[in-house]
UniProtKB/TrEMBL annotation:
One protein family per Pfam: Phosphorylase
CDD domains noted in UniProt: GT35_Glycogen_Phosphorylase (cd04300)
One GO MF term: pyridoxal phosphate binding
Names of the cofactor(s): pyridoxal 5'-phosphate
Modified residues (N6-(pyridoxal phosphate)lysine): 675
Domain of life from the UniProt record: Bacteria
Family (UniProt): Belongs to the glycogen phosphorylase family.
Protein name, per record: Alpha-1,4 glucan phosphorylase
Organism taxonomic ancestry: Bacteria, Pseudomonadati, Pseudomonadota, Alphaproteobacteria, Hyphomicrobiales
Function of the protein: Allosteric enzyme that catalyzes the rate-limiting step in glycogen catabolism, the phosphorolytic cleavage of glycogen to produce glucose-1-phosphate, and plays a central role in maintaining cellular and organismal glucose homeostasis. Phosphorylase is an important allosteric enzyme in carbohydrate metabolism. Enzymes from different sources differ in their regulatory mechanisms and in their natural substrates. However, all known phosphorylases share catalytic and structural properties.
Enzyme Commission numbers on file: 2.4.1.1
Length: 824
């Protein structure tokens, strides 16, 4: 007979945050010796970085454990946020600032002759995302911790993630982003939280009675392990710490010894290499079949691991699964985790023995889905043969769900054959494909857009028929950004100035920022605001000089467009207008031109030919313009390579003019527009995405709107738009396009951009020609505003003051109240 030994755990008080610099310095030295294994006399900057993080991380861990315990004991409903991207950037300043320890750590390191700013620059940007979708997920995780929502983020721990971008001869070169070279002191490996993930194989019927199949058994032919790595996410003031759980793939059998011993050394590692690929790169190129298959494998890998983890956690606390919708809100960030809908059905039915109808009801009440795009190609779909080969049981369930949905639609009598076809989870015209957007929609109780315009268009376009079938599901949750990262940390000068003017309340209640509005016409404050902006511009000018060898004048208007390179975001419109401006400056030197620096930054998908060509065009134009003495320095162009969160934190505070110029009706929301405005930039943009709501909040007099509306774009496309006629009626546009097409900026390859420009003449799907004259005229309006410096900065201050509503704290409270049913 054995006896159980029980021990009562000693309650450990959290480490204090009000530690003195001397005490913290001693802790850093101790961590340097015993956890890094170095003496101060031989420690490198990387060693000091690791020791500093670990000293503060201990305080985070205390609050992390307590937050988890409190949620468990209160039986609080948890939010599980599934996203293929989390563009978290550097975490050091984020964590130190949110704990209120930034000055303490700075002074502690000074006592050790270490410069915080120097070692902070060594922390790599986590390569876990590409653009707005991933950065939104990161802002949401921080806001959930800040407002008190118990949550887990789930994604993939990419070893290389999104590529590191270099520019060679004006062209984008993709290199591996080796962000884990020095380890990651923020993460905790949880080897005990490992789950087996299957692919391929066959489905067998079991327990057949009276000719009816009672149970299905999936027998995968391949298996990999998903191993959890946890990173704490610190909320403001450290009151709550949530978890970002990322999955790393490992082989079940690291090496096949029989093959190795037989001399097949490559074959012996085949399983290991296939597993390694799953968590190696974000968004493998899907222009070929192998890339498509890897992408689907990644999405199922992290979705299955996350759901298995969620169900295991729920069972360990409640002992049954029927209460899952009441205790767990699972949120799908775009279509990447949409396969979770059928995976949860498989787990509930095949593993836990719940009947289909009850499982489907539970699934719909548990899931919610955020749509981020109206672009058909971005609403993922997978070839049926590929889906069925990799996930045969899931294909069965897709057909079963689809039958129920289509029979339901047909029974209403309100849908014709065309509408039924569009509602179907299976695309039948052309190659048969599984529509992941439709699957996410039917499997969720809530589908939200991310701006008012986007949500309205979603009801009218991509989900019009599904909205007709389920009219109560679509709702709007306009995006937001975390002010901790995008003001307090990246713009200390402006933060201090605001605090001096209105007091510190806005740090905890961001809506109080509105009180700054009354200082917009205060001459002394305007002058201080301009001075703070100039410091930020000087910093960016220094970075441009160091990285590009381009010297720019901080007193010039800094005109910045930084975002993913895509034709609908219209970096092409921007650079064509720059060419037109270049021609005008040379042709009319007598005019009083406003000195302007046009900054660009962003990555193009490796297989997106036109996007990469636009990058090359920007660099080719820059090479000519920046070296032309006749311009007299009045126009400079700079493409900043390897755009990431850390570079954004330098560029956004330095911007005078924010380019948000997407073709109307194509940008779901945007969050860069919010970050720029919060940092005192004026927006030049179309009435697209959240620009519409920004105009409502900042006022029409404080934003530069141009171009066609979404409705006008749709009408032009429907009524036989002829771009050639538009081009020929605009001398500036015609001349600029001719210069680019004829090789003025590519003399060694005159035809380099001919096809790109021909696309504008022949179709102009993205309305570059249609909006050019309006855009160019609005740029000249910006020049007029800029020449009246007090007027410009008054408008900029209004923008800052009126951006409080665009906090991700507000967005998360809306999600919690209206979608997740979580009390905050």
């Amino acid at each position: 007979m054995t006896s159980a030994i029980k021990s009562k755990a000693k309650v450990v008080a959290p480490m204090p945050l009000d530690v003195t610099p001397r005490e913290l310095a001693d802790e850093i030295l101790k961590d340097l010796r015993y956890r890094v294994g170095k003496d101060a006399s031989v420690a490198t900057s990387y060693d000091w970085l690791a020791a500093s993080i670990k000293a503060v991380r201990d305080r985070i861990v205390d609050r992390w454990i307590n937050s988890t315990k409190q949620a468990y004991e209160a039986q609080a409903k948890r939010v599980y946020y599934l996203s293929l991207e989390f563009l978290i950037g550097r975490l050091m300043r984020d964590a130190f600032s949110n704990l209120g320890m930034m000055e303490t750590i700075r002074e502690a390191l000074e006592l050790l002759d270490v410069d915080l700013d120097v070692i902070a620059q060594l922390e790599p940007d986590a390569a876990l995302g590409n653009g707005g979708l991933g950065r939104l997920a990161a802002c949401f995780m921080e806001s959930m911790a800040t407002v008190g929502v118990p949550s887990h983020g789930y994604g993939i721990r990419y070893v290389n993630g999104m590529f590191r971008q270099e520019i060679s001869d004006g062209q984008q070169v993709e290199l591996p982003e080796t962000w884990l070279d020095h380890g990651n002191p923020w993460e905790f490996e949880r080897r005990e939280r490992s789950f087996e993930i299957g692919f391929g194989g066959s489905v067998e019927a079991a327990e057949v009675q009276d000719g009816l199949v009672e149970r299905h058994v999936w027998k995968p032919s391949e298996h990999v392990l998903a191993v959890a790595y946890d990173t704490p996410v610190v909320g403001w003031r450290g009151n709550r710490v949530n978890t970002l759980r990322l999955w790393s793939s490992m082989p079940v059998d690291p090496i096949l010894l029989d093959k190795f011993n037989a001399g097949d050394h490559v074959g012996a590692l085949e399983e290991s290499n296939k597993a390694d690929a799953l968590s190696r790169v974000l968004y493998p190129a899907d222009s070929h079949k192998a890339g498509q298959e890897l992408r689907l494998r990644q999405e199922y890998f992290f979705s299955s691991a996350s759901l298995q983890d969620i169900l295991q956690r729920h069972l360990s606390q409640y002992g049954e699964l029927r209460s899952l919708p009441d205790k767990a809100a699972i949120h799908l960030n775009d279509t990447h985790p949409a396969v979770s809908v059928v995976e949860l059905m498989r787990l509930l039915i095949d593993v836990h023995g719940i009947e289909f109808d009850e499982a489907w009801d539970m699934t719909k009440r548990t899931f919610a889905y955020t749509n981020h795009t109206l672009l058909p190609e971005a609403l993922e779909s997978w070839p049926v043969p590929l889906f069925e080969r990799l996930l045969p049981r899931h294909m069965q369930l897709v057909y079963e769900i689809n039958a129920q949905i289509l029979l339901e639609a047909r029974a209403t009598g309100n849908f014709d054959d065309g509408q039924i076809s569009r509602i179907s989870l299976i695309q039948e015209d052309g190659e048969r494909r599984v529509r992941m957007g439709n699957l996410a929609f039917v499997g969720s109780h809530s589908i939200n857009g991310v701006s008012a315009l986007h949500t309205d268009l979603m009801k009218e376009t991509v989900f019009a028929d599904l909205h007709k079938l389920y009219p109560d599901r679509i709702n709007n949750k306009t995006n937001g950004i975390t002010p901790r990262r995008w003001l307090f940390q990246c713009n200390e000068g402006l933060t201090g100035l605001v605090r001096e003017a209105i007091g510190a309340r806005f740090l905890d209640d961001f809506e109080a920022l509105a009180e700054l509005d009354k200082f917009a016409s205060d001459k002394a404050f305007v002058e201080k605001f301009a001075a703070a902006k100039r410091v930020n511009k000087q910093r960016l000018a220094q970075v441009a000089a160091e990285r590009l060898g381009v010297k720019v004048d901080p007193s010039a208007l800094f005109d910045i467009q930084i975002k993913r390179i895509h034709e609908y975001k219209r970096q092409l419109l921007n650079i064509i207008e720059a060419v037109a401006l270049y021609d005008q400056i040379r042709s009319h030197p007598e005019r009083d031109w406003v000195p302007r620096v046009k900054f660009f930054g962003g990555k193009a998908a490796p297989s997106y030919y036109n996007a990469k060509l636009i990058i090359r065009l920007i660099n080719d134009v820059a090479k000519v313009v920046n070296r032309d003495p006749s311009v007299r320095g009045l126009l400079k162009i700079a493409f900043m390579p390897n755009y990431n969160v850390s570079l954004a934190e330098i560029m956004m505070p330095a911007a005078d003019l924010s380019e948000q110029i997407s073709t109307a009706g194509m940008e779901a929301s945007g969050t860069g527009n919010m970050k720029f405005a919060l940092n005192g930039a004026l927006t030049i943009g179309t009435l697209d995405g959240a620009n519409v709501e920004m105009q409502e909040h900042v006022g029409e007099d404080n934003i530069l709107i141009f171009g066609l509306t979404a409705q006008e774009v749709a009408e032009r496309r429907a009524n036989g738009y002829k771009p050639r006629d538009v081009i020929e009626s605009s001398p500036e546009l015609s001349q600029a396009l001719s210069a680019i097409s004829s090789g003025v900026f590519s003399p060694h390859e005159p035809g380099r951009y001919r096809e790109l420009i021909d696309g504008i003449y022949n179709s102009d799907w993205f309305m570059v020609a249609a909006d050019f004259d309006s855009y160019a005229a609005t740029q000249r309006k910006a020049d007029v505003w800029w020449t009246d410096s007090p007027l410009w900065y008054t408008k900029a201050i209004h923008n800052v003051a009126r951006m409080a509503w665009f906090s991700s704290d507000r967005t998360i409270r809306e999600y919690a109240r209206e979608i997740w049913n979580v009390r905050v």
